[in-house]
Design brief:
2 copies of one chain form a homodimer. With about 350 residues, chain A is of the alpha+beta class. Chain A is built from 10 helices and 13 strands. In chain A, helix 2 runs parallel beside helix 3, helix 4 packs across helix 5 and helix 4 packs across helix 8. The longest helix of chain A has 18 residues. The radius of gyration of chain A is 21 Å and the shape is globular. The interface between A and B is large, with 80 and 80 residues.
Chain lengths: ~350, ~350
């Protein structure tokens, strides 16, 4: 995957040469971006006094968050931006600028770094975000990418995790568990390839879940829909660690309980079928798989009419008072305490 | 250095537990910080419509930027914040918030991470900055720290690298080369220790240059002085890669030349003497050593009277037209082209 017809060593450019090479063709699109790459700091001017600035940061580490044996660099660049934008949408805001830091080992060629950067810039273009700065350095081992995103939101539209109220409907966009099942497919094919490099990978009929894993999107459209519908969610966060973990975050921070209905959890048929092939429970994959980058949010019950006919929203439960606990009502009607078995990067060794 | 009386494994807390443990006692000090750690993004409200937002990011990688065999974790945490604040001061701004991402290997104990964090928070406290968010993940190899800093500056006070004008005086704060000589001392003692672990390190009389390396400060005071003196530099950047490299950045971006006078370069006597002990030229250390985090700037010649008696400013040359080139006038009066041999992290393997 790191092969290419030409290979230019990074040391031939040096740090400043590399940054210049990667960034000189960047066109700044947002009026708020006054100065991008090229000085000690980027300069940003949010002129609307009615807005606040949102800032979030995510670090992706080779071998922990991604495996370059099956993740194309361009996809990795794209995804590394998406996971950050998702955090801004999860506040009901609009991402505007990103700052990219990378530690790159000398095994990377210039062409490889260009691929990675091309993916980042593609995501920037699609979501109307400016890449305004960062840091590029060497790594003694794996690739490390850190992206910080800045965004804007009208002051009274910011949605926190702590705003869920008893009686709120618990909703989620899109479907869940697909990214996790895509990862299982990729891991399986990697194992097979290691045993016999002549076997072609069997990815037939798995396009949707592979795309969920390799090239996820952030739900800009949902935030726009909230605005179009004049719908103000009470609490929200994005689903990066798994539905169960995120629901528990919202309930803990809002000091409430919940009832989540297993049968309401949106799962794509490809996710469902693949889970069955792997002898996995699709619900568990949705609850604990993570990396879906969907939006989990709660709304006033009175707003139900606004969302009930929308194809990409699911009402999956409701918020209760704290004493009732955080519960999953299974398809068979059993009530069980919701447990977070989310993907905890710190537990990976 | 990683030893401690008690050792708590990070896996005992998990990612969310660790973040909570490290951040729950953080007190937010800046009125602009609306929401810090604990949501998808931090929320910041710069209410002054006359200001712009500054943003900068730096990544520090173990084995490339620091060596834990002689850098105490608390000092590392402190320095990792300082190098970022320095970028905001270099724009003539005031840093207000930082976002911290860390990749930590399992060889670190909770107590070690606490030390690192304590250093970061100490720097935040000293410089009036809020730690508002970040990401904590695991690393398969070394420690990686990425800090993004946000700051503010009055719109018409921002100082870029590209503003130097012919006739400007070239100035620098403090003294140069000390951090580099401190590093030479630490590297020497490490080599000696490896050969014979019973020999005590000989750091006698090297306190100043060791502090320059291990616990640098950012020049908040100089930015305040600019304000007090009503002095608007025409161009500015901080000295992180070495004086020569930084002067060339300013000249290239401003499309000008310069004359730098060797005899005017401020070098502390401890730096000078240590360079001699190491058979190094102190001027070369100042030109190419880096990590000084002093401010390099140019001012109108008419402003000379404002700075001429200040103890911590040195006028080291002047800006010429581009055709004259970027030159160093040596102590013997020879004129030589200025060369950047700065510390280029990408060339390190």
């Amino acid at each position: 995957m790191l092969e290419n017809n030409t290979r230019t060593e990074l040391s031939a450019l040096g740090e400043f040469g590399l940054i210049k090479h990667l960034t000189e063709h960047i066109e700044l699109k947002n009026p708020s971006t006054i100065k991008g790459v090229g000085d000690d700091a980027a300069v940003i001017n949010y002129t609307n006094t009615n807005t606040v600035t949102l800032v979030s940061s995510d670090m992706l580490v080779e071998g922990v968050h991604f495996d370059l044996t099956y993740v194309p660099l361009k996809h990795l660049g794209y995804k590394s931006v998406i996971v950050n934008l998702s955090d801004i949408y999860a506040m009901n805001g609009q991402p505007k600028q990103i700052v990219v830091s990378m530690a790159i080992s000398s095994r990377f060629s210039l062409e490889a770094v260009e691929e990675l950067y091309a993916g980042m810039l593609l995501a920037c273009q699609k979501y109307g975000v400016d890449l305004v700065g960062g840091d590029t350095t060497s790594s003694l081992s794996g690739l490390v990418i850190n992206i910080t995103v800045l965004g804007e939101c009208e002051k009274d539209k910011v949605v926190y995790r702590h705003g869920a109220k008893e009686g709120n409907l618990l909703c989620v966009s899109g479907d869940l568990g697909g990214a996790y099942m895509g990862l299982q497919i990729l891991e399986r094919e990697k194992t097979i390839f290691k045993e016999n490099p002549n076997i072609q990978p069997d990815l037939e009929g798995k396009d949707y879940i592979l795309e969920r894993q390799l090239k996820p999107e952030a739900r800009k459209d949902i935030v726009k829909l909230f605005s179009d519908l004049n719908l103000q969610p009470r609490s929200m966060m994005d689903v990066s660690d798994g539905l169960a973990s995120e629901i528990l975050h919202i309930c803990t921070q809002s000091n409430v309980g919940c009832e989540l209905y297993e049968e309401k959890i949106p799962i794509d048929s490809q996710t469902y079928d693949t889970a069955r092939q792997f002898n996995l429970d699709a619900t568990v994959c949705a609850l604990s798989g993570g990396e879906d980058y969907e939006l989990l949010f709660t709304i006033d019950a009175a707003d139900y009419d606004k969302v009930k006919n929308l194809p990409d929203f699911s009402v999956i439960g409701h918020i209760t008072n704290k004493e009732k606990g955080t519960n999953l009502v299974t398809k068979s009607g059993t009530v069980a305490a919701l447990k977070a078995q989310g993907w905890d990067a710190l537990l990976k060794k």
